[in-house]
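Input sequence (396 aa), recorded before submission:
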Amino acid sequence: MAASEQLSLASRSVFYSPEESTQSISYPIFMSANYQYAGDAYDQVVDGARRDVNIYSRCGNPNEYKFDDQMAEIEGADSALAVASGMAAVSHAVLGLLRTGDHVVVDLTTYSSTHEFFDHRIQDFGISVTFVDSSDVDAVRAAFRPETRALYVETIANPTMKVAPLRALADAAHEHGIVVICDNTFASPVVCRPHEHGVDVVLESATKFIGGHNDAVGGIISLRSDILPADWLEQIRWNTLTKLGGALSPFNAWLLLRGIQTLPLRVERMSENAQKLVAWLDAHPAVRRVYYPGHDAHPQRALAAEQLDLPGAMLAFAVDSEEQAARVCKRLELASFAASLGGVRTVTQLPATMAFLDIPEEERVSMGITQGMIRVSVGIEGIDDLIADFAQALEA
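Predicted structure, token format:
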């Protein structure tokens, strides 16, 4: 087999070596919670080679290991660690890195649960947080302190579609030995691979584009860094994951591994649909504004063109009020009005009154989240059918 780095992303996504004991080209499901200490397994565990031995599924299982390896392959990472959800990826990465007295700089516009994690929970551990607009590199630099340990950003912000200048941020942070953590969920590795832009730790809610079918929940942490030790993720496995209990189940790992194989096809179709839907929405009289990295009016349009391989499948648009936005979403028939994103079916959401409902209105406004905003995760439907659905929903 040719060296993996010589293969395209599409080929790296679809290919992995057959399972050794059966030579199955579709990796089997190992639905076991416990494993026998056979042969020299006990001695290996005692000697510290725990990653090489199946012990107990909270510590790791063959399906998780295979998913880890495949995600590292498509993220361009040195290693990866799967966990039970996207928020588990956030919490395990952050708690595995930061200690009492540390300081972290966080982009102001992050996913609502992430924002609340940094605004409330993490500070219970004596870790201080400064929120800043990560599109302003000078503002980020000004927020650094001697005790700053990490910078946390999103490749494409949820739900405003703001694009973070990853290379400039990484360069600024690394001058001070600061670790850069990037949530790549809105992009997926098909749209952007943050490790290639200097990011140390990349997080994905694998529930979204990686799985792609709204039927599995999981998260992934990947590592490529000159700052963190090569075994940092294994340290998190044994010091954080096994203690907090955020393990990924074998069945979900199997579903997510299968999802990787069609990821490029799905995201390419979704992005193509999104660009056409954006052009249609932009011309509609009821639409006040469109938010999309590929839109000419996007504040970071040039950066997006340089940093993203595709404009992506996520967009938002605004109508006059929350009442109008709710009517539009309720009238949709082909597209769904629901939570989550990244699946094969188009899904709409009202960020201000759904995902960000628990964020105070003043903070939502500072993030750029308005009452009339509708977030859209574009699926793989026929684009003419999708546009017709939005047309009838916007009629009123």
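Checked by second reader. The CA atoms of residues 72 and 79 lie 5 Å apart.
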